[in-house]
Here is the input.
Amino acid sequence: MSGLSVIFAPLLPWAVLGAGAGLAVALLALALWRGLPGWPLRGMAALVLLAALSGPSLQREETEALSDIVLLVDDRSASQGLGGRAAQTDAAVAALEARIGALPGTELRRVTVPDGEENSGTRLGAALAEALAAEPRARVAGAVVISDGQVHDVPLIPDLPAPLHLLLTGAPQDWDRRLVIQTAPAFGIIGEPVSIRLRVEDVGAVPAEVGGRATVSISIEGEEPKEYEVSVGRDLELPLTLRHGGQNVVQFSVLPVEGELTTRNNDAVVQINGVRDRLRVLLVSGEPHAGERTWRNLLKSDPGVDLVHFTILRPPEKQDGVPVAELSLIAFPTQELFIDKIDEFDLIIFDRYGERGILPSAYFENIRDYVLNGGAVLVAAGPEYATVESLWQTDLADILPARPTGRVLSEPFLPRPTDLGLRHPVTAGLEGAPGVEGDDGPHWGRWLRQIELTDPTGEVVMQGARGAPLLVLSRAGEGRLALLASDHAWLWDRGYEGGGPQLELLRRIAHWEMKEPELEEEALFAEVEPGSMALTVVRRTMEGQADPVQMTLPDGSTREIVLQETAPGRFTARFVAPEAGLYRLAQGDLERVAALGPASPREYDEPIASPEPLAAALAASGGAVTRLSDGIPTVRAVRAGRPAAGRGWIGITPREAAATTDIRVVPLLPAWAWLVMAALLSVAAWLREGRGRARS
Here is the structure.
């Protein structure tokens, strides 16, 4: 194909040519005013000269017709795997490739859309915009999208220069039941109820026999789930009470119903971080001593601790004749603290307390019951623990984890973790800890006094002078106890011989007694790596080895995870997950649920195929929606402005684009021809004017 056109390449600037044309017109006007008969010929001569100076040339273009381009966008996101959509898509792709390929002068560009990163859903708009930018817009004759219509970046769909068609997968009778978490707090106070709002919805062509009731099961921290009957389509306010600090994993599930499209949106996981409003501590010091201020400063330095501290300055046996009314001391409110309000305390600390008749024996029975019902007691024993004033001589002896021998070891000694203590979370990994057998490197400072204990019934995690138990931890009923057989922990705080981790040790003891999951001896949990699809399975145990962990994947398959010991008492394994969802871990009686990404990915939020998200883009381009359940449409070429779809067919608009292959430019006339023409016209004008003067 070729085309011919005239172009100009002036020898002088257009402004100069314009000035020359103006001068020629002025001279012609003068000749006309003077009545010269040759003025037309003079004007033609001037016009020829101006045309020659404008440089007219003939341009011949050789062009080649270009093929039209049709974009085929193939949605392969997760929701396209539901029902028979994958088979529908495969059949449609194969048919369109054959039919569009058979059209003369038409090419097909296929674009596959996977799941979006970080649970962003179907990024079809971005894929279509990228594909359109890679092609010349003048050649794009249409775009065909094979999808369920659930697109999550509709604003990114570009304006197309040709029709956009949607071939909708799925079936009109599809329906699904899903669980929607509407509101859930990120944090909650331990022991106080938090509210979670959820809703069970039925979407699509719901069969009449399904009914309006659903069964919801709720499991906290992998425990045995509890089932509840709820109404479908109504909001449900669910109060939960957090029982421990740290992450509390709550799993919700809707019992599957036969015929629903998918069960991937029947589960949801809420992770609530449990925090304590205040840690209420009762510190009872039996007498003033060097370490008392250390205890007080330690507990008061934590803004999350409410401390009630009593020091017994005037024991009953002290009788000096001073009237009680003249004393400025505060009376010890024993009944209020140990009878009326004992359950309000999270931890009771007896610091060098000796039984001198201040607390009636019935009160110790009440303290014992407080522990058995879930309370916590820490005994920091001094020399009185080895005498008849010992707490061992009270009703607390039933639950105290070790018996005093009656000896006080007054000699320097280095506190050391025991073999068990190296594995126990309370004492494992304390900074600067010496080995069990000792070493020559830097280590903690020594203490100077210890009460000898015997017959420990709890876990001895630290030992002191002559290998005697120094720190014993035990459980009693629902509660916990810790016995520290020395009143010289304050030496670490004062930096004696380099000091030691007093603050961290006491913090761990208190948190262990508060049943914090991070300090449980037997625990199974998963640490999710931020920004990745990997998690680390962690098994903490006091045993020398850990059995493999059974992992259940979101698709129901199971895998056996073999653990390796990475630290004393800590066994781990890294696992790269194939997909987002819920991963259930189980080993013996221990169970745990970990969520990678959302429990129900975004792709399953709206599983029913629908053209609504793309309706505006289809209408703007003149395209249409065709359900693949009604058959695969044929493809026709239609002129721009005509209907682009009909019953059983969709249309593309040929663009008739062409590419220039060759351009040739030749002067309209050679320079000498322009000069001859101008000269002849000028001579003719002169001759005519000469004959006119001769006749006159």
Observations:
- The mean pLDDT is 85.
